[in-house]
């Protein structure tokens, strides 16, 4: 897991890219919103 190696190195924080996955925001966002609203 290279992300763990990068996060444990304080000098690499400026080079770390958080958005590694190119999922469209609605792929998971709306699913979880719908699931949360159904469970209430």
From TrEMBL:
Superkingdom classification of source: Eukaryota
State the name under which the record lists this protein.
(+)-delta-cadinene synthase isozyme A
